[in-house]
Amino acid sequence: MTSWDTHNPACDDLPHAPRWNLTQGSRMNDMGNFREFFSLSLPLTERLFQKRRHRMGLLDDRIHTGVNFYATSQEIVREWQLMGEDTLKFEAAKKALAEEREKFNAEKKGLAWRVVVAEDKLAKEKQFNSNEQKEWEIACERTKREMQTQRDQIVMLSGEKTKISDEAEQEHAAHQKRERVNTSNELPS
């Protein structure tokens, strides 16, 4: 028969002999069961040591043991209360950290969106400036051609003016010469 999953094949031929006669239905309100349980639960040397001690010493030990048990129980309860308070503080700090992290992540997303918007704006401005630069270069080239044409016309007109003024001077000089010749021809008579 196996119980509690403690089957040992080497002990199959040995009968089970419990150290006491207590069974599962035994109760500790019967003094015989109580004495049998505690007499067999302590090692023999401890039982002999306790049997030789004076009754007042045993009573003092029991009182000290009870006081120590009570103090230990109180310390355990106090530690549990402190652990509960620490747990509440930890949960509050964890919640505050989660809120702070959420706020930080929202701010981080906002910053990321602002960076994306700024980069888009910068790209549009660059495209606009490049288009404006091309248009400006085209306008400058057109203006340069127009000014060059006007300069050429000015140079041509000033050349014609010089030529015309030279002709006018020559004509004026020739006219004065003719007048002098005419005037000098009219005087001797």
In short:
This protein is 80% helix and 0% strand. It has helices at 31-41, 44-52, 55-186.
Question: What tags apply to this protein structure?
Answer:
189 residues, mainly alpha, rod-shaped
Write the layout of secondary structure elements.
Blueprint: H1 31-41, H2 44-52, H3 55-186
Protein model, in words:
The chain has 189 residues and is mainly α. Helices cover 80% and strands 0% of the residues. The protein contains three helices and no strands. The chain has helices at 31-41, 44-52, 55-186. The protein is rod-shaped. The termini are far apart. The model has no long low-confidence stretch (mean pLDDT 84).
Approximately how much beta-strand content do the residues carry? under 5%
In the predicted model, the low-confidence regions spanning at least 5 consecutive residues are none
SS summary, helix count: 3
Number of strands: 0
How far apart the termini lie comes to 183 Å
* DSSP helix fraction: over 70%
Structural class: mainly alpha
Rg of Cα set: 63 Å
Oligomer: single chain
Taking the sheet with the most strands, its summary is: none
The shape is rod-shaped
Average pLDDT, rounded to a whole number, is 84
**Could you spell the SSE succession in H and E letters?**
HHH
